[in-house]
């Protein structure tokens, strides 16, 4: 049966307007005021904003960091995602050292297929570059994996500058987007060694092991090398003013530079590492939480339209049994934060309700621009006829408190514990089916793989 979502206000990057949304066979069939309800099931969205389903383009589900596997797998992570309003995630399939990209893609399909409660796509993280892998790039793009990830930090994952240049050139020929983790890995190793030698081993020393210039240097280097290769730049989890300024310099030189930041860099700051005892470990992620000045710079960049996407970098580890592997040494604390469930509420609360960004910018940064950047638009990322009916009915008047007690993330904490949230996903439709309501799942396991086209931002 057709579904008519009535009386809401549809949000696009350009405007907000009163309209009903007609859904048929999982697709959006019409958008407009006063659509006839005959023969339709109806959903009353009065008083609500109607957003295109949110896309999280940066998740690490069912990922083994070499010591321990993330607390969330595809079953738990995508269920949490859809409860919060996220209808598509783009996760990082990661090449094993000595392995092929085809093997990594197969492994990630096995992790996700038949287990996911929201739609999913993959980026391919290249960790072991060689001529045979170069031959696989075109195959990945044909398989709908049109974006790639490179690390400039983490000894088990990172590529050299020479490899970076070669990969950029090869992936560029296939019009793949390359998202890069920008931290100078050698410098991080030196800083960690200095702190350890000085007996500075608690979680609070995570941040000084990765100062802002560690990010800025890598952003600048990546931009110059991408410029030499003649391909667009995509920087994931930008966290600092200094890094932003390097990206601005590259843009001023005429380069295409796409920037992602994450809610943790907008909402939390480095003072969290001063929490008593081992509590600071909850906030250990890379790049680390930053200063209030960095936070202000990122909000200003959002206001100016300089940021293209807000995704989570969801990479959850339990405090007990996982984070505490680093109880005696901060450098052994598994890096990453949970956030897949709470991103829309955190961004709406700290951004839209606080007057730092508009609901239209939220639709752009959490949905449409991300879909365009990653070759999913207009199937995803828009409330437009012919697209997938991934729809979030958002109640801007809802008031609730973020807490691990009520979350669906499979983690023993949330970094947003106690946050007084404004607004909530009242109903979440995935290809026309009600998947979650008021933060609780309604129908699980609806997720399917999204084979993507090449980016339109090339
Ligand atoms: O601390 C983080 N962000 N862990 C996940 C891997 C990454 O760097 O993106
Ligand atoms: Zn990263
Ligand atoms: Zn990440
Ligand atoms: Zn529940």
Automatic annotation (TrEMBL):
Modification after translation: Carbamylation allows a single lysine to coordinate two divalent metal cations.
Gene3D superfamilies (UniProt xref): Metal-dependent hydrolases (3.20.20.140), Urease, subunit C, domain 1 (2.30.40.10)
Domain Amidohydrolase-related: 49-433
EC code: 3.5.2.2
Cofactor needs: Zn(2+)
CDD domains cross-referenced by the UniProt entry: D-HYD
Domain of life: Bacteria
InterPro entries, alphabetized: Amidohydro-rel (IPR006680), DNase_TatD-rel_CS (IPR018228), Hydantoinase/dihydroPyrase (IPR011778), Metal-dep_hydrolase_composite (IPR011059), Metal_Hydrolase (IPR032466), Metallo-dep_Hydrolases_sf (IPR050378)
Segments crossing the lipid bilayer: none
Molecular function (Gene Ontology), one example: dihydropyrimidinase activity
Keywords recorded for this protein, A-Z: Hydrolase, Metal-binding
Post-translational modification N6-carboxylysine, affected residues: 149
Any one of the GO CC terms: cytosol
First-tier enzyme category under EC: hydrolase
Family, per entry: Belongs to the metallo-dependent hydrolases superfamily. Hydantoinase/dihydropyrimidinase family.
Protein name, per record: Dihydropyrimidinase
Organism expressing this protein natively: Anaerotruncus massiliensis
